[in-house]
Amino acid sequence: MVIELLEPLETLTIREATWNDFDAIMRVLSIVDHEFVPPLTEGENLRVKVSRILNDRRRSWIKAVDDGRIVGVVAVIYHYRRPQLGLIETLAVLPEFRRHGIGKKLVEYAMSKLFQNGMEATLITTWETNVAASAMYNELGFKMILRKKVDGAYFKLFFTRSFEKRAPSRNGFSRFWSRR
Ligand SMILES: CC(C)(COP(=O)(O)OP(=O)(O)OC[C@H]1O[C@@H](n2cnc3c(N)ncnc32)[C@H](O)[C@@H]1OP(=O)(O)O)[C@@H](O)C(=O)NCCC(=O)NCCS
Fold first, then answer.
1. How far is the CA of 172 from the centre of ligand 1 (A)?
2. Residue 147: is it exposed, middle or buried by C-beta count within 10 angstroms (0-12/13-18/19+)?
3. Helix or strand or coil: residue 125?
4. What is the pLDDT of residues 31-63, one digit of tens each?
5. Is residue 102 a part of any domain in this protein?
6. 170 within some domain
7. Which domain holds residue 94?
């Protein structure tokens, strides 16, 4: 029914995750693991990955919650390699919740966290065959800066976007936008 399809978006919230969300984050990542190139579990144990980010003050998990259930996640890393650079990584939305704008909202929220925490630019990567992610990053104003072969097996694309502060808006919030 149409109502069942529309309802999830109306109840969607995006927030920073906490240790209470450990199992739910694990669940989402386990479901999408095989879609990543290479799979997330090939790089490191998922429990270690989720814990490492929750434990580190310079990293956070962001969660998309629909009707009390985590349906998407993304990680942010402040001060990645350079003091002013933030990294957005491990973006994942449950298959049945895709194409409702959740991935985009997660990345936008991640960008605002990086901006609020003083980052001047953000970096995000994906594998070349990931049409969905590349299209989203382009739509969000990211520019592809590097295409690099990894492990002689696949091409990794690097996207960046710069932030610039402007005067607070009337409701008191500053927005970020590209320095292009
Ligand atoms: C990539 C992913 C996070 C997108 O999540 P989503 O919630 O479906 O994305 P959104 O609905 O916010 O889509 C935003 C934009 O991305 C692009 N996009 C998303 N899915 C797409 C697809 N299957 N094909 C082409 N473009 C797509 C579109 O430009 C879309 O805007 P539009 O709906 O206005 O056309 C999701 O497909 C996913 O979890 N994939 C598996 C893991 C993954 O690839 N993670 C990214 C690693 S870098």
1. 31
2. exposed
3. strand
4. 999 999 999 999 899 999 999 999 999 999 999
5. yes
6. no
7. 2-162
